[in-house]
Amino acid sequence: MPRRRLAPILLLVIPSLAQTSHTISVTDNGYRRTWWKEAVVYQVYPRSFKDSNGDGIGDIPGITSKLEYLRSLGVNVIWLGPHYDSPNADMGYDIRDYRKVMTEFGTMADFDVLLAGIKQRHMKLIIDLVVNHTSDEHRWFVESRKSKANPYRDYYFWRPGKNGGPPNNFPSFFSGSAWQLDPTTNEYYLHLFAVKQPDLNWDNPKVRQDVYGLMKFWLDKGVDGFRMDVITLISKNPAFPDLKPGQNFVDVYASGPHLHEYLQEMNRDVLSHYDVMTVGEALGISLKQTPLIVDERRKELNMIFNFAIVNVMRQGRHIRHWTLPELKAVYSEQAAALDAHSWNTIFLSNHDNPRLVSTFGNDSARWREPSAKVLATLLLTQRGTPFIYQGDELGMTNFPFKTIAEIEDIEAKNAWKADVETRKETADAFMDDMRHTSRDNSRTPMQWDATENAGFTTSRSPWLAVNPNYKSINATAELADPNSVYHYFQRLIAFRSRTPALIYGDYKDLNPGDPKVFVYTRVLGPERYLVVMTFSADAVTYKLPGHVRAGELVFTSGASHEGHTGTLHLSGWEARIYRL
Ligand code: ISL
Ligand code: CA
Questions:
Q1: What are the tens digits of pLDDT across the range 143-180?
Q2: Which of 84, 178, 242, 529 has its CA 20 to 30 A from that of 99?
Q3: Is 543 exposed, middle or buried (0-12, 13-18, 19+ CB in 10 A)?
Q4: Cβ contact 126:80 at 8 Å
Q5: Which of 79, 229, 305 to mutate to test the pocket of ligand 1 (most atoms within 8 A of CB)?
């Protein structure tokens, strides 16, 4: 609850910088101010957000019908998952035509209405750029596989087999080999993901020019930037040496020889001509390496999704039991690695990872809401651009999967074939993993209300089952409850937007080793804030480290008004923000 109502201000004028007559372009601690550093992003997974025509599949008019919901939440940017024509082998991440809207999602006219609706509400739209690979039904690949002499042959990677098998020992992210033998020309093609997702050959300048052309097509329509799918994998070593024993294939795939050259060319040829936001999905890049992509002086991308957070909570398909010091370490390492020339994202979930509250919080009936509010506080008081994944603002939870038949995701279905059907792993152990880490946990339909199928669709068969807890966890119920997770997110987004120290302020963890309490400061010039969160169900009497004394309580998820003290009486899963 914000303790002091500050006058609502425009995104572009910040109180601690408002002393001058014009908007300051650099903060006290050296950050060049931009709209995308001050934004809060909301990720929409279109297939599961809202179905407008009763076919059980979310669509673009459905999103348009919910823009008021998103505007009132207070987010500024919407990241739309792949909306292009696709056979949906990997739910839209296998694109057949980059300039056509997926039939199930609607038409280009629908897209234009959505974009106009977003702009009218002073929000922005970024779309998903998936150009490490295409669908095998894309015309480029249809041509490429026809013959070795086809002009599109080297749009992809084709290699002869070796010793009767694939050209090398690269594994796919989706089980099995990363090479597929194509009988027409009796050569193998590379697919780091599904067989139906052949990798584009970025060493071919025609490929790069065609990609830049499709980027300009959407930018000229007015989109405000891109989230770039597995962008760190686009450069390959064309010799394709075998992985050596012990080598992590993700690191090898992400360290191609020309990655930075291509990103700088993309920036020079396309991005620098528009006022856009870019965020790269950065598999295989450490926090330490992050400035190589996001340092503004390198003119590559604005920010990336590191996997440091994902790697805290999972090892591939298996959930990992983590400690709070391990989670804290990610933020301190990020703060140490990035100076004022480098910005980054803050995220805890997305369409590839399980639900926020089930993974980092506690989704029991007693602690689901309190822990969701603590996680909202972590997301919205760290330095970086926060990304909220659809439904996490409601505290939606993982799904109680029992059988593989309930799961649609190709990553899981391929792993089932590779590991369970071959008896390497029992079905029970596999399904226990799925309940914790399956991507479908986050892809179940958005829970709008307590009517059948949670108001997501009028169809009796949504493409993926609705979580059975929708009657108690849904937007309508939370909009009516001032103490709901939704309203906490809404209030904290507003508070962050008018509190520059929470956006740009220096970050310092005051107690990295504490196993239950996460406590840090955010400081920007005279603005000094203390964030305190308990990451467990246990109440804690907590003496603040050193001579730190909490000042005025300005925001809290709890009932206590305690302030102006060095010792805090914290309940389980409670978040507080103090002015120092
Ligand atoms: O690594 C993963 C889990 O954290 C994989 O699930 C995921 O495939 C990987 O992060 C890359 O993700 C991106 O590319 C894939 C697509 O399936 C994912 O949905 C997308 O986010 C291939 O396009
Ligand atoms: Ca539909």
A1: 999 999 999 999 999 999 999 999 999 999 999 999 99
A2: 178
A3: exposed
A4: yes
A5: 229
- pLDDT tens-place string over residues 106-124: 999 999 999 999 999 999 9
The C-alpha atoms of residue 376 and residue 358 are separated, in whole angstroms, by 13
Q: Is 555 touching ligand 1 by the criterion CB < 6 Å?
A: no
Q: Please write the tens of the pLDDT for every residue from 194-238.
A: 999 999 999 999 999 999 999 999 999 999 999 999 999 999 999
Ligand 1 center to 65 CA (angstroms) = 28
The residue assigned the tokens 């297939």 is 47
Q: Which atom of ligand 1 is nearest to the CA of 93?
A: 23
Pocket of ligand 1 contains residue 353 by CB under 6 Å? yes
User: In this structure, which long-range contacts are made by residues 6-9, counting pairs with CB atoms below 8 Å and at least 24 apart in sequence?
Assistant: 6/498, 8/494, 8/498, 9/498
The answer to whether the CB of 310 is under 6 A from ligand 1 is yes
Coil, strand or helix at 281: strand
542: number of Cβ within 10 Å: 19
Is 203 marked active-site? no
Question: Is 504 a pocket residue for ligand 1 (Cβ < 6 Å)?
Answer: no
Does residue 560 have a pLDDT over 60? yes
Say whether pLDDT at 409 is over 80: yes
In the annotation, is 137 catalytic? Answer: no
Q: How far is the CA of 101 from the centre of ligand 1 (A)?
A: 21
At position 197, the amino acid (one-letter code) is Q
Is the confidence at residue 16, as pLDDT, over 50?
no
pLDDT at 360 over 90: yes
Looking at residue 24, its pLDDT comes to 73
Q: Could you give the CA distance from residue 517 to residue 347 in angstroms, rounded to a whole number? A: 20
Q: How far is Cα 219 from Cα 196, in angstroms, rounded to an integer?
A: 27
**Side chain identity, residue 40:** V
* CB atoms inside a 10 Å sphere around CB 339: 12
How remote is the CA of residue 466 from the centroid of ligand 2, in Å? 15
Closest approach atom of ligand 1 to CA 133: 23
Question: How confident is residue 23, by pLDDT bands cut at 50, 70 and 90?
Answer: low
Say how many Å lie between the CA of residue 420 and the centre of ligand 1.
Answer: 21
Q: Is the pTM of this model over 0.85?
A: yes
Distance (Å, whole) CA 484 – CA 480: 8
Is the C-beta atom of 173 inside 6 A of ligand 1?
yes
Ligand 1 pocket member 253 (CB < 6 A): no
State which residues have CB under 5 angstroms from ligand 2, the bound ion.
Answer: 51, 53, 55, 57, 59
Whether pLDDT at 92 is above 90: yes
Q: What is the pLDDT of residues 269-278, one digit of tens each?
A: 999 999 999 9
Cα–Cα distance, 120 to 237 (Å, whole number): 46
**Smallest-distance ligand from the CA of 280:** 1
Average pLDDT over residues 121-144: 99
All domains of the chain in start order, with CATH: 15-133+205-407+446-493 (3.20.20.80), 139-190 (3.90.400.10), 506-579 (2.60.40.1180)
Ligand 1 atom closest to Cα of residue 352:
6
Whole-number Å distance between alpha carbons of 462 and 444 = 9
128 Cβ closer than 6 Å to some ligand 1 atom: no
- For 153, the token pair is 């042959």
CA–centroid distance, residue 457 to ligand 2 (Å): 8
